[in-house]
Amino acid sequence: MIFKIVFTSAAALSLAIAPSSADADEGDLQRLAALVDYVAADYPGAVRDGRVVAQTEYDEQRGLVRDAAALARALPAPDAASRDALLADLAAVERAVDGKQSPGAVLAACRAARARLVDRFGLTLAPSAPPSAERARNLYRDACARCHGDDGRAATDEARKLTPPPVSFRDGERMARISPSLAYHALTFGVKDTAMASFDTLPASDRWSLAFHVVALRHDGADARRGARLFAGARAPLAPTPSRLAAISDGELDSLLAPSLPTASDRADAIAYLRRDASFAEAPGGQFAEARRLTARIPSAAPAERHALAVAAYLDGVEPHEAALRARDPDLATRIEAAFLDLRRGIDGGEDKDALGRRAAAIALLLDRADERPAGAGVAFVAALTIALREGLEAALLIAALLAFLRKSGRQDAARLVHVGWLLAIPLGLATWWVAGALVAGARRELVEAVVTLVAAAMILGVSHWVLGKREAMHWVGFLRRKVTALAPGRSGWPLLLLAFIAAYREAFEVVLFYRALLLDVGAGARGAVAAGAAAGAVGIALVVLVVGRLGRRLNPRPVMLASSVLLAALAVALVGRGVRALQEGGFVGVTPLSFPDLSSIGVYPTAQGLAAQALMLLLVLLPSLPSLRRARGNVGGARSAP
């Protein structure tokens, strides 16, 4: 056997003391993951070609699958659907084992169950920071070499006295099925009926360092430097980070690399690089390297420094790449954003180092997924188009509403100032392109964006009150015309010019930042696709403005002005939500999550602060219309009661 890890008693204990809270205990989640990983690793030694070759081992596999299902049923689940999905995954594992299916089929079923634990139950079985090669060597020498030998062959005098003998870390067939996470399980829980005791008194970081070390021992004869070059050229869908490599065995790595590295010796060198170098790299690369570096520092940092590190990790390490990530995987982008907000709440709530380490590990796994989804030409085009439409459409609708408002109120001359306002935003946006990288970064970027957004919302509120403050049917159009025409040209037009400028510049500001980051993400080969996407987005925005303008000319003044005012009010509410969100991302405002739908595409986020601000804005928008509504009700009531 590889690691004869029998967790039957541990599972029974977990069933007896299962917590009743909504969150599953981390130890129970690890035990369940250990059971699943053990079945995946040891099943090939029990069944070959559909036949049982080791009956005792096969019976043990079947028993462990049932223990895993029992433990899963006792775990507190985030929701009924998650529990049902996990039990279905484990049932698939049981069918595969009972049906003596191929090791590949059993492995796939086990990996699906493990992925469910990560995605839906919050399992964070990955190192929160890169393991230490030096620390691992020292620990191995002091705690492991006596039995397993300095070279890992387990050919020592002490090993010969033990029954069963210690595993040889040089056994290629066995170790090809051992992932660092399975070795970590053995160090954490020990190995029943062997001399392998639990090392759970060691810090988790030390156990991870040891786990990666023993898996890497057999690769010391390969050419890791050559492997690094081969891996870089292979462009395999794999982030070479400790968090990603923790759950993958050498056999799985071999399968991942086979399409691009058909030669076995090339794959051996590439795997040696991943095990000996990449697994211990202090600064893993990738687009999200800065986010990883800063996040990994948080658990060990002084409490006073953690909040600032979390803010910088997201703003400097994630947000610059957000546009491209949202184009190729919007759900993952949302999950990463939520994970960082959860991390900050944990920091502000005073969570200890271990709890923050689990949060950091969970973020690292999400960043691995993001790095494994490269932005090609198609993604670059979609991202550029999305940026143009998402950021430009809001300003275009606002300007179109203002123009329709002025046209139907008889102030066509003031429309010129609206055009001047948004045109002035273009050169300033171009200037922002050159200074964005140096002067407007991180929290300062979020603060500038929030201020501009909230100012635009306030100005929209003032304009929308022109309409919502007077809704009487007989005097509505007349009032609006008097209001607009009574204002002296050159003075009344300035608020409109300023509003058009602020609204357009706010969008230009975000467009500049997103396009700068997108061009860095996609590289020189896809810059043409970015330009094409931006051009397509500009054409789409122009068409929207043209259609809205033509419709406005054909309709009567009242519905056009009412629709314009409602649109302005809706934009004001959305802008307030985005402004508060920018303040939250910059660390200037706290985050209190609520059970509310995430409607971020229209500026509605499920936080108490954002929804409260939007409720206040909505109240300010509707407040001027309440007296007229009461008078209208009174008139209707009087008419009905008249003889």
Please specify the SSE layout and strand pairing.
Blueprint: H1 8-16, H2 26-42, E1 47-48, E2 51-52, H3 55-74, H4 80-98, H5 103-121, H6 133-143, H7 145-148, H8 157-160, H9 172-175, H10 180-189, H11 204-216, H12 224-234, H13 242-245, H14 250-257, H15 264-276, H16 289-297, H17 303-317, H18 322-328, H19 330-348, H20 353-371, H21 377-408, H22 415-439, H23 442-468, H24 476-485, H25 493-522, H26 527-554, H27 557-585, H28 608-622, H29 626-641
Helix pairs in contact: 1-3, 2-3, 2-5, 2-10, 3-4, 4-5, 6-11, 10-11, 12-15, 14-15, 16-17, 16-20, 17-19, 18-19, 18-21, 19-20, 21-22, 21-25, 21-26, 21-27, 22-25, 23-25, 23-27, 23-28, 27-28
What descriptive keywords fit this protein?
643 residues; mainly alpha; Four Helix Bundle (Hemerythrin (Met), subunit A); 4 domains; two-stranded antiparallel ribbon; 29 helices; 70% helix; 1% strand
In total, how many domains does the architecture comprise? 4
What class, by secondary structure content? mainly alpha
Q: State mean pLDDT (0 to 100 scale).
A: 77
- Beta-strand content estimate: under 5%
Instruction: Sketch the major β-sheet.
Output: 2 strands, antiparallel
Question: In angstroms, what is the radius of gyration?
Answer: 31 Å
